[in-house]
Specification:
Length: 313
């Protein structure tokens, strides 16, 4: 089937980012109606012909679940309208934190969402900083998994980094932090030994690495309650770090997180626009970098059948 033509659509979760991506691609955002039936159910209609077209649907799947539902319905609509190929562009892949059955009677939500997306009509997925890399394997369709590190590297790379050190707030993020430290010209790195006995109550127990006198750049995939970063910051300062700064891809920001982080000793918090939080961030401590260019480049390469690997770490 021919798919020379590209069309990009979005749901209601991140329309500003979707517009920016379209601007980078020099294509208009496709027309779609997403509203509600009078009982509150979501109603979707793609308002343009997509038969034989290479379709990209941009939507982050953070709470509420309506964001996920909108994406599923849009995928189904595009599939039934005979799109040649449908790529779900999911800058923030929600429901990813339950990614293994590590206690009795829990779901593996990350796998369930993968199945739902595939069943709804996604032929491939483009995502950013998945909570765990193995989520790629939950899909039986191709997944292009990008990292926001090039965006952070460009931002921090303009500084004198001689006293900087990259710190992972937990063992799970060590690979990401190592890649970033390498990209920044071989910065030293440290790892916080984090334990989470109860949901949303992580403890920073120990530190692997010497942070004495260093500017620590804590690198994480997401900020929810902010507890992980606040606890890690306390430990780093206690161990002699000069200051702590943060680069985190997804600003999920659960209730009170922004206020707690504002009041914390963290000097600077840099996130991306994978979630629509810009309007909630009044404190100058927060900076939002756009991933539009990165995602647009990936979309362009996917459409043209080119490699996206140079966009990785
Ligand atoms: C944990 O594995 C993640 O990488 C984040 O560190 C964590 O989900 C952040 O959550 P919170 O901000 O609630 O501590």
């Amino acid at each position: 089937m021919v798919r020379d033509e590209i069309k990009v659509f979005c749901g209601n979760s991140i329309p500003v980012l979707a517009e920016s991506i379209c601007k980078e691609l020099s294509v208009p955002l496709g027309k779609a109606t997403i509203d509600r039936f009078s009982d509150g159910e979501i109603r979707v209609k793609i308002e343009e012909n997509v038969r034989g077209v290479d379709v990209f649907i941009i939507q982050s799947t953070h709470a509420p679940a309506e964001n996920l539902m909108e994406l599923l319905l849009m995928l189904d609509a595009a599939k039934r309208a005979s799109a040649a190929r449908i790529t779900a562009v999911i800058p923030y892949y929600g429901y990813a934190r339950q990614d293994k059955k590590d206690e009795p009677r829990v779901p593996i939500s990350a796998k369930l969402i993968a199945d739902l997306l595939t069943q709804a009509g996604a032929n491939r997925v483009l995502s950013l900083d998945l909570h765990a890399e193995q989520i790629q394997g939950f899909f039986d369709i191709p997944v292009d998994h990008l990292y926001a590190t090039p965006v952070f590297a460009e931002f921090f790379g303009k500084r004198d980094l001689s006293d900087y050190m990259v710190v992972s707030p937990d063992a799970g993020g060590a690979r990401r932090a190592r890649g970033y430290a390498k990209r920044m010209g071989g910065l030293p790195m440290a790892i916080v030994d984090k334990r989470r006995e109860k949901k949303d109550q992580p403890e920073a127990l120990n530190l692997v690495g010497d942070v004495q006198g260093k500017i620590c750049l804590l690198l994480d995939d997401l900020i929810s309650t902010g507890t992980t970063l606040i606890k890690a910051t306390g430990l780093l300062l206690e161990r002699g770090a000069r200051e702590v700064r943060v680069a985190a891809t997804h600003g999920v920001f659960a209730a009170e997180a922004i206020a707690r982080l504002s009041a914390s000793p963290i000097e600077e918090i840099v996130i991306t626009d994978s979630l629509p939080v810009r309007d909630r961030l009044k404190d100058d401590k927060f900076q939002v970098l756009s991933v539009a260019k990165l995602l647009a480049e990936a979309i362009c390469r996917i459409h043209n059948g080119e490699s996206v690997s140079s966009l990785f770490i």
